[in-house]
């Protein structure tokens, strides 16, 4: 899960994520439109087949109607001259049935066109025998040579003594060219006889079961029978045939799917980006998880011992990456979460540091606060775990001056905080808004020179200004803290000048997690028995 999230939020993978989204949308749309088109095709194929079946239903009703007429109107003696006249009258009716005959003992005795046959035609065993005297017996697809219809085939339909030749019915001309079909005649017991179309299609269609999208073996297939279940029509169209017939439609739908997928994936990506933006991730997990602390050791230069730390906030991203304050501090401020955020840092730091300070010993802990939160009552509440007579910590709050800091008000708040035992340092002195005016106007305990002084190359203007800044702060009676100490030479120089109380910087130690800080202080901190009580 974490690796998926990491992949999704990594900036370098964004084009891959966008392309994958597009592909998923494209395939989904393609599947949906294919399903829709195949469904429509299936419906239109079924319509065509049922229209075609109407022809066969008509043939069947013509047979029954003609037999009814024969039963009513053939009143003369069978095979007499009058009988032949009556037969011919019925044969001329426009229903397609014109070879009528008289049938007795399994044989055709006389027909409307041939009169009395010199030799009765024995039809033999029927293919579909009548189940009762009111139904029709059928001999399917027989040779009609004996009736003088050389080369023709047709079926014999008989009821009682009356019968007729049912000519083979060709498939109706209106059926689509792209459909393959087969018409069969089917007996109630399931036997069937091919009558027209593609031989074998009916059998194949019966054997195959439906696959995805209603496809069978890469083709759309249907079987329909007329109401009596006598004529059945199997129809089939392969994807290949569909591509030939509907290639243009398919091309167009591919283009439409591609465009729609681009639009849809853009929308989803924007939604995802909003959901997975750093800001959303940070805010979603703000209260519950993510906040972590790093501890950067503070070196007491008089004792050459690490006597405390500055607590620096960190944040664990959803994929476990450690995020630095420059990314989340602006978000905290933008959403007015400064106080809850400081509280989270304070509580976590207290839980992690307390076990490191043995009973009766003390540790200096510096926190950063947001300048707009300089309000004694709220801060005393937030920092309560570090205060009180039982506390093992000497608490320092570092404040950065901003344009918004109103000196008189700030001074009142600082006084209240100091009365409650909190030390106050001005942070980043020498950068941004901090000025001599601030130093003179606020009764702070110490000043942290901006790290750009100590980090400046030797002999640079900033490096030379470091000494002046140290002098100036010392002259104001405040403690001097120099941060950004990155070299042994710089540390040695600071020690030698004898005016700096604390040093902090990568040369001494980078900010550490709790365990590393515990090891560090065990090595570089005061011996447990000799650890002095720190007084600002
Ligand atoms: P800051 O208060 O000036 O903190 C010191 C920053 O300098 C830290 O960066 C620290 O890692 C870095 N630093 C320390 N020694 C050296 C060094 O020798 N060389 C260099 N190049 N850098 C050094 P970080 O942790 O990224 O913090 C940046 C800023 O974020 C802090 O500046 C502070 O203004 C703010 N911040 C950090 N934690 C908190 C917090 O809990 N609350 C508030 N309000 N602000 C915080
Ligand atoms: Ca600071
Ligand atoms: Ca600073």
Characterise this structure:
- With 536 residues, the chain is of the alpha/beta class.
- It folds into 3 domains: 17-57 and 172-247, no CATH class; 58-167; 290-524, TIM Barrel, CATH 3.20.20.450.
- It contains 15 helices and 20 strands.
- The chain has helices spanning 2-9, 14-73, 81-91, 201-207, 239-276, 278-284, 325-334, 338-353, 376-382, 407-419, 436-441, 451-455, 461-475, 488-497, 514-524, and strands at residues 100-104, 107-111, 115-122, 137-143, 153-159, 162-167, 180-186, 192-197, 215-216, 219-225, 231-238, 291-300, 305-316, 322-323, 363-368, 393-400, 423-429, 446-449, 479-483, 502-504.
- The strands form 3 sheets. The protein has an 8-stranded mixed β-barrel, surrounded by 4 helices. A 6-stranded antiparallel sheet has the order 3-2-1-6-5-4, with helices on one face.
- Helix 9 (376-382) crosses helix 10.
- 29% of the residues are buried.
- The model is unreliable at 530-536 (pLDDT under 50).
- Ligand C2E binds next to strand 13, helix 7, strand 17 and helix 12.
- The site of one calcium ion (CA) has 5 residues, from strand 17.
């Amino acid at each position: 899960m974490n690796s998926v999230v990491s992949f999704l939020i990594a900036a370098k993978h964004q084009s891959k994520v966008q392309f994958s989204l597009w592909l998923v949308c494209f395939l989904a749309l393609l599947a949906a439109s294919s399903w829709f088109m195949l469904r429509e095709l299936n419906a239109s194929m079924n319509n065509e087949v049922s229209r075609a079946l109407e022809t066969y239903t008509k043939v069947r009703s013509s047979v029954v109607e003609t037999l009814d007429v024969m039963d009513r109107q053939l009143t003369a003696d069978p095979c007499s001259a009058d009988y032949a006249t009556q037969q011919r009258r019925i044969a001329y009716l426009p229903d397609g049935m014109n070879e009528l005959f008289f049938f007795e003992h399994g044989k055709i005795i006389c027909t409307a066109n041939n009169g009395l046959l010199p030799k009765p035609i024995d039809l033999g065993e029927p293919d579909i025998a009548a189940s009762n005297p009111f139904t029709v017996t059928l001999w399917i697809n027989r040779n009609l040579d004996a009736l003088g219809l050389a080369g023709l085939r047709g079926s014999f339909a008989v009821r009682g003594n009356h019968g007729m030749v049912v000519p083979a019915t060709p498939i109706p001309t209106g059926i689509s060219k792209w459909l393959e079909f087969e018409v069969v005649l089917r007996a109630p017991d399931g036997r069937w006889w091919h009558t027209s179309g593609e031989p074998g299609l009916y059998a194949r269609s019966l054997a195959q079961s439906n696959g995805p999208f209603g496809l069978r073996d890469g083709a759309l297939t249907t079987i329909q029978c007329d109401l009596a279940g006598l004529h059945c029509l199997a129809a089939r169209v392969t994807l290949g045939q569909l591509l030939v017939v509907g290639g243009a439609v398919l091309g167009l739908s591919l283009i439409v799917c591609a465009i729609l997928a681009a639009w849809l994936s853009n929308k989803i990506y924007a939604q995802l980006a909003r959901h997975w933006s750093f800001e959303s991730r940070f805010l979603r997990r703000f209260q519950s998880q993510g906040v972590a602390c790093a501890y950067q050791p503070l070196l007491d230069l008089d004792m050459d011992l690490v006597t405390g730390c500055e607590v620096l906030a960190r944040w664990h991203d959803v994929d476990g990456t450690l995020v630095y304050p420059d990314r989340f501090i602006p978000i905290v401020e933008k959403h007015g979460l400064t106080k809850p955020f400081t509280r989270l840092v304070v509580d976590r730091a207290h839980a992690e540091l307390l076990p490191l300070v043995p009973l009766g010993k003390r540790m200096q802990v510096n926190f950063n606060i947001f300048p707009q939160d300089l309000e004694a009552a709220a801060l005393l509440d937030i920092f309560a775990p570090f205060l009180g007579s039982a506390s093992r910590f000497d608490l320092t709050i570092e404040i950065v001056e901003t344009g918004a800091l109103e000196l008189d008000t700030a001074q009142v708040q600082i006084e209240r905080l100091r009365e409650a035992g909190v030390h106050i340092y001005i942070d980043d002195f020498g950068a941004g808004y901090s000025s001599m005016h601030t130093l003179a106007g606020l009764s702070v305990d110490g000043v942290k020179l901006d790290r750009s002084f100590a980090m400046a190359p030797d002999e640079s203007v900033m490096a030379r200004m470091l000494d002046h800044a140290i002098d100036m702060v010392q002259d104001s009676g405040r403690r001097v803290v120099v941060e950004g100490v990155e070299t042994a030479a710089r540390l040695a120089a600071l020690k030698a000048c004898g005016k700096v109380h604390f040093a902090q910087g990568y040369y001494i130690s980078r900010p550490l997690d709790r365990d590393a800080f515990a090891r560090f202080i065990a090595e570089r901190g005061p011996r447990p028995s000799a650890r002095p009580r720190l007084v600002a």
